[in-house]
Write a structure and sequence with these properties.
It is a single chain. Helix 1 crosses helix 8. The protein is an alpha/beta fold and about 180 residues long. The protein is built from nine helices and five strands; from the N terminus they run βαβαααβαβααβαα. Helices cover about 50% and strands about 15% of the residues. The structure holds shikimate-3-phosphate (S3P).
């Protein structure tokens, strides 16, 4: 069964950009939990937070995690708070390689500043909030199978590193092994 790649990590660590590239290279479908929730609810993430609060959004993430556990051949990019319910990660681990993307608070701040779509960072001290949330979430994020730092390195390099690890663990199928010119060992 073709194993999914599941990207977890804080906002602005590159989950969407890297996820799309990985999906293209593997010929897997790309899924983004925020986009799926928006499509299902007909509301933007910031509207869900405004109207119903964060707890409701976390419940929508948990409902989605249950559905995604049964999928195959997907690259799944998750919202930054998705691992806060450990059962979400358990669901996706049943057929997924869980990869944590990490970056320093400054780099994250630089990447997300000016983006109005992230309700948790819409406050007078976004950099401080990033540092605080990262510290609070560390214990959830560290449940990942593999960690990739995205502060430096271009997307292609990061993609190569991740796929090399994925193949090393024997998660690629015959086609991907051929495509990447490596044997599965
Ligand atoms: C959140 C991250 C966002 C989105 C929501 C909450 C978080 O996703 O799910 O705004 O709690 O860190 P991205 O990580 O894709 O920005």
């Amino acid at each position: 069964m073709a194993k999914n790649i599941v990207l977890i990590g804080f906002m602005g660590t590159g989950k969407t950009s890297l996820g799309k590239l990985l999906a293209r290279k593997l010929d897997y479908q790309f899924l983004d939990t925020d986009q799926l929730i928006e499509a299902e609810s007909g509301l933007k993430i910031r509207e869900i937070f405004q109207r119903y609060g964060e707890a409701h959004f976390r419940q929508l993430e948990a409902d989605l995690a249950r559905k995604l556990g049964n999928t195959t051949a997907k690259v799944i990019s998750t919202g930054g708070g998705f691992p806060l319910k450990p059962e979400n990660i358990q669901q996706l681990r049943s057929n997924g390689f869980i990869v944590l993307l990490q970056a320093t608070p400054k780099v994250i701040y630089h990447r997300v500043s000016g983006d109005e779509s992230r309700p948790l960072l819409k406050n007078p001290d976004p950099l401080g909030t990033i540092g605080r949330l990262l510290a609070e979430r560390q214990r959830f994020y560290e449940k990942a199978d593999f960690v990739l730092n995205t502060d430096e390195g271009d997307l292609d390099q990061l993609c190569e590193t991740l796929l090399a690890e994925w193949m090393k663990r024997g998660y690629g199928n015959g086609t991907t092994a051929l495509k990447f010119g490596r044997s599965q060992s």
